[in-house]
Amino acid sequence: MKKTRPRTRPKKKATNPDTFTVDQEGPLLEKIIAAFPHKSRKLLKAVLRDQQVQVNRKTVTQFDHLLKPGQVVEVSWDKSSPKKRPHGLNIIFEDDDIIIINKPAGLLTVATDKEKRKTAYALLSEYVKLENPENKIFIVHRIDRETSGLLLFAKNEKIKHTIQETWLTTIRERTYIAAVEGEIKQESGTISSYLNESKAFIVYSSQNPKAGKKAITHYKTLKSNKDFSLLQVNLETGRKHQIRVHMQDIGHPVVGDTKYGSKLKPIGRLGLHAQGLVFTHPKTGELCSFKTGIPAKITQLFDQDQE
What we know:
Blueprint: E1 18-21, E2 26-27, H1 28-35, H2 41-49, E3 53-55, E4 58-60, E5 66-67, E6 72-75, E7 90-94, E8 98-103, H3 120-129, E9 138-139, E10 148-154, H4 157-165, H5 167-170, E11 171-181, E12 188-197, E13 203-206, E14 213-224, E15 228-235, H6 242-249, E16 272-280, E17 287-291, H7 296-303
Parallel strand pairs: 10-16
Antiparallel strand pairs: 1-6, 2-5, 3-4, 3-6, 4-7, 7-8, 8-10, 9-10, 11-15, 11-16, 12-13, 12-14, 14-15, 16-17
């Protein structure tokens, strides 16, 4: 009698990640679409959102993350069980040392006497503890509550101190978008003064070197109409309320900024957005560059003018 081997079900092959090397500079989503033409755009956006894409072994979820030639992109088609994303926060980059978020307007960076729970710091602390209760988050810098945009946190104290102690050389570029009152006709300009904060937490500007810390702001006009101007602002120094005070100095306060001279609240928030951040990674030495879109509430001030 011929013996027969019992039938066994063939093992389901695990879906291995697909990898490609970047040959030309371009946005991440566009490169993934080009690399996997038979995959739907909806699927490719989903794998980005669900933390299934890595660039040089670092998870990236930002659709317009700028890829450089030579970088390796890895896409995993198997949806694992990612950590629960913190509600209300858009994490655009995370590795073992840092987290970068796109903070919404209205959310504090860190607790105050009035608000101790719902802050970016608290939400991220809860998020990292899901993986390990011993994990912590460390504040590297802050942006105002009513300012939206890119905010960098460290995942250990050593990285925090490394960035803060080498801030001027580590942080290569901080770019903001500002919607200000009135039409600014000059294409670009530089504002320089000395800033000092009063006991009432109001920052004052002076040309007296003994009256505060030096602050330098560069701006470029992107759009303007008879009511508002849209500026790209680069900080040479990073003083508290620097952009807000310097815009007041030139007679064009940030819209919605009643603390520093604005009389209009056309968008229900401060017209300030931290759009770009370029820095040297504190551990790898790699140059990291991140850029977000301009919030629709800000662009609507200029779309109406073109109707």
